[in-house]
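=== RUN LOG ===
request id: a7f3
mode: sequence -> structure
chains: 1
length: 99
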Amino acid sequence: MPTSRQTFANAPSDSRVTWLPFCRVLSKESGAARQIAGQLLRAGTSVGANVEETRYWLRLIAETKLATTESVEPLLQEANELVAIFAATVCRARLPRDS
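=== RESULT ===
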């Protein structure tokens, strides 16, 4: 079983594998869908600061029905999990260390 450190280290890599097929399908559409797919791909394959941007683009895609809720929801859940991992890491880093 991987440690939490190994899971954290692999999370960005794993999410890129998930984002790529979704963006590839969405980018075959014309107009706004293609543009948003490019934005999502850039945000979704970056780590840290772009997680919020990724969530924004996923919500926009779902709300405007550029893709089905069923295809967006797992990606949004993954982005939410990354936010939770990052938040827990920051909180833990702020804890006083034993000397």
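=== NOTES ===
The mean pLDDT is 79.
DSSP finds four helices and no strands in the chain.
=== END ===
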